[in-house]
Write a structure and sequence with these properties.
Layout (H helix, E strand, L loop, with lengths): L6 H6 L2 E3 L5 E3 L2 E3 L7 E6 L2 E4 H10 L7 E4 L12 E4 L1 H10 L9 H12 L4 H8 L3 H8 L9
Antiparallel strand pairs: 1-2, 3-4, 4-5, 6-7
Helix pairs in contact: 5-6
Length: about 150
């Protein structure tokens, strides 16, 4: 009979160490409404965010009301050297300081994005032109965002 793997061994087996110092999660993933992918690891009967598990396995328990934040801004990264603790407010300030807050587009820009997409301009190119994420372009084109703009 094969010996049971420890939780740490099961977890780190799903992490791929790559370029830029990123340790990317290769296990279960989810893409919530924010369109930012999240890795999840099943422990104690629940799916836990992978970066939180990386913190716990490396540094120990996380105090209540604290978040595990990414200095590298890669939501799939589990490198403990790229993680730090902070409050929700700290997370918001970090987001603003790094220019990651949602960009407000005008109705005219929404129309232009849809027109460009209809002429087969690649989403990456549209995203670069408007300084937004390509997945955000997809949400606009599929009318999941600003449905009322014709």
């Amino acid at each position: 009979m094969k010996p049971k793997q420890s939780e740490a061994d099961r977890f780190w087996a799903r992490v791929e160490k790559g370029g830029g110092g990123w340790w990317n999660w290769r296990g279960k993933k989810s893409i919530p409404a924010s369109n930012i992918p999240r890795g999840y690891f099943h422990r104690h009967g629940y799916d836990w965010p992978a970066h939180r598990v990386a913190w716990i396995l490396t540094h120990g328990p996380i105090k209540r009301n604290l978040c595990v934040l990414h200095s590298c801004d890669n939501s799939m990264c589990c490198n403990p050297q790229h993680l730090f603790l902070g409050t929700h407010g700290d997370n918001s300030r970090d987001m603003v300081r790094k220019g990651r807050q949602a960009k407000r587009l005008s109705d005219q820009q929404i129309k232009e994005i849809r027109k460009l997409a209809s002429t087969k301009v690649p989403r990456k190119e549209i995203a670069a032109r408007f300084n937004i994420n390509p997945s955000y372009v997809g949400e606009i084109v599929k009318r999941r965002y600003r449905k009322y703009v014709k």
